[in-house]
Design a protein that fits this description.
Elements lengths: L1 H57 L43 E3 L2 E7 L6 E2 L7 E9 L5 E2 L3 E2 L1 E10 L9 H7 L1 E2 L13 E14 L5 E3 L3 E3 L5 E5 L23 E3 L4 E3 L2 E2 L3 E2 L15 E2 L23 E2 L2 E5 L7 E5 L1 E2 L2 E5 L7 E7 L7 E3 L3 E7 L3 E4 L3 E3 L7 E5 L8 E6 L4 E14 L4 E13 L4 E5 L9 E12 L2
Parallel strand pairs: 10-13, 10-31, 11-14, 11-31, 12-15, 12-32, 13-16, 16-17, 18-21, 19-22, 20-23, 22-24, 23-25, 24-27, 25-28, 26-29, 28-30, 29-30, 30-31, 31-32
Antiparallel strand pairs: 1-2, 2-4, 3-4, 4-7, 5-6, 7-9, 8-9, 9-33
Length: 483
């Protein structure tokens, strides 16, 4: 009996040792699997954040700060975004029932996603539930002067562990990034998890990222004209911030989503079609492709109410003084045949104006220095080039947005001689014609475009960083924070 008991004890010790070793390896394997799965949850969290930014983009009229998507009062931030936080990431105040944000001097600095259900659930052994905690903020260090805001996403992916005890060594736990969740009394709170943190920098995509793009036919430049580019921010690529042919750049790209592309003069940039038969030639100083498509976002009518005491028609001469960046003066016109002058505030020297024309534009505009103007129009536009007077000499300070017409209808933009003009036009439902010898300085998005004579386009490269028309968001940088 003694021998039997001793044998059983020895076998039990051996079995317990083997079981402990197998259990530890089993747990280590699950930790490794959970560690790998947690990066999937982190990336899924980044996808959720980018999707929400796109939802906010669709409701841009509801941004309290028109340059910051985090300030949208629409539906974007009402689902699972619910913890007010400070700029350092600490919680600030009580958990909100619905939308949550942090405000510093009235400015939202971040939004925090707090999931109410697991982000991903799957069957099988080991970790079955994955979560993400997501913080989106808009730090001043990521603002492209003077207006365009980039965003930072910090997404922590968490994979539940199927046990509540760590591995055999603290070094292994650190490697697997295992977090045990027990309080000092041994009371269970959320389950332990393996977690990984990624940081994603998101860049807004400007509708003016290409010098000229059309939905259909492109017939440019005029036989004696050129398409090229310049950068007013760089003295080696401009003179005094103005276009200088002696400092010409070769980023005057032209694209069509159609197949018709007729080259008259010289294009200093790339040229592309969507299924056309454009061939390289001495007239195109850049790459030629026939497999490019870029979706053009339709323009909708503004939903705001006009500022009291502003004109409702302009038939002779009218002057409007601009407001602040976050509170621009809003003007709604039913008729525009006279001269409209936009002036800055006498106190600040700057002024912002938004104009909504429910009909046609047939009158001159004068944008004085210090003014930024955005003009939305539902009808046609017919003016001479010298009637678009932009005294700021920056295309970003005068932007036209042609409201997309109902299906089956088109609108037109006709610009004649004499003179040249500086502005940006985004009107994917309008056919544009330019006659004579105007130089078009800025960027242009239309349904089609036709130019004759000496007409040319000088793309302002700074418009690629302009947020007047954001069409989407893209990932500019991705890294894992392994601290």
């Amino acid at each position: 009996m003694v021998i039997v008991m001793l044998s059983i004890a020895v076998l039990a010790l051996i079995a317990s040792g083997v079981l402990a070793m197998i259990s530890d390896r089993h747990r280590s394997a699950f930790e490794s699997s959970s560690w790998n799965e947690s990066i999937l949850a982190a990336e899924a969290g980044a996808d959720i954040a980018i999707r929400t930014l796109n939802v906010a983009l669709a409701e841009r009229s509801k941004w309290s700060n028109k340059h910051n998507a985090l300030t949208s009062a629409g539906t974007a931030w009402t689902t699972n975004w619910g913890v007010p936080i400070t700029s350092t990431g600490a919680t600030n105040g009580a958990f909100a029932a619905s939308t949550g944000s942090n405000k510093v001097a009235g400015v939202i600095t971040a939004q925090w996603f707090r999931p109410t259900t697991p982000l991903i659930v799957h069957d099988g052994e080991g970790s079955r539930r994955l979560f993400s905690n997501i913080v989106i903020d808009a730090p001043a260090s990521l603002k492209v002067a003077p207006r365009t805001q980039w965003y930072r996403i910090r997404s922590t992916g968490m994979a539940e562990l199927p046990f509540r005890r760590a591995g055999s060594t603290s070094e292994d736990n650190a490697l697997r990034q295992v977090s045990l969740v027990w309080d000092q009394r041994g009371v269970f709170v959320p389950p332990p998890f393996a977690g990984r943190l990624i940081e994603v920098i998101v860049q807004p995509i400007s509708g003016f990222a290409t010098g000229l793009i059309c939905e259909e036919d492109v017939k440019i430049p005029g036989p004696a004209g050129v398409v090229d580019s310049f950068d007013p921010r760089d003295p080696t690529k401009s003179t005094g911030g103005l276009y200088d042919p002696a400092k010409r750049q070769q980023n005057g790209d032209v694209a069509t989503n159609g197949t018709v592309f007729h080259v008259g003069g010289t294009i200093y940039g790339d040229a592309s079609t969507n299924g056309g038969n454009l061939q390289p030639s001495s007239k195109i100083i850049g790459d030629v492709r026939n497999d490019v498509y870029q979706e053009l976002t339709p323009v909708t009518a503004p939903a705001w109410t006009a500022t009291p005491s502003t004109p409702t028609t302009v038939t002779t001469t009218s002057t409007v003084t601009g407001g602040s960046a976050n509170n621009p003066i809003k003007v709604k016109l039913s008729k525009w045949t006279g001269t409209l002058t936009l002036s800055p505030s006498a106190v600040t020297g700057v002024g912002e104006v938004e104009i909504y024309v429910t009909g046609d534009i047939a009158g001159p505009i004068v944008v004085q220095p210090g003014v930024t103007a955005r003009v939305f129009f539902a009808g046609d536009m017919s003016v001479k080039a010298n009637e678009i007077v932009n005294l700021t000499n920056r295309a970003a300070n005068l932007e036209y947005f042609g409201i997309s017409p109902p299906a089956g209808q088109t609108r037109s933009i006709d610009i004649g001689s004499p003179g040249s003009f500086t502005c940006a036009i985004y009107a994917p439902g309008h056919d544009m014609k330019v006659a004579g010898n105007p130089d078009m300085i800025g960027a242009f998005v239309t349904r089609s475009i036709s130019m004759n004579g000496n007409c040319g386009v000088h793309y302002d490269e700074s418009l690629a960083d302009d947020d007047g028309m954001i069409t989407a968001f893209k990932i500019a940088n991705w890294l894992e924070d392994v601290r």
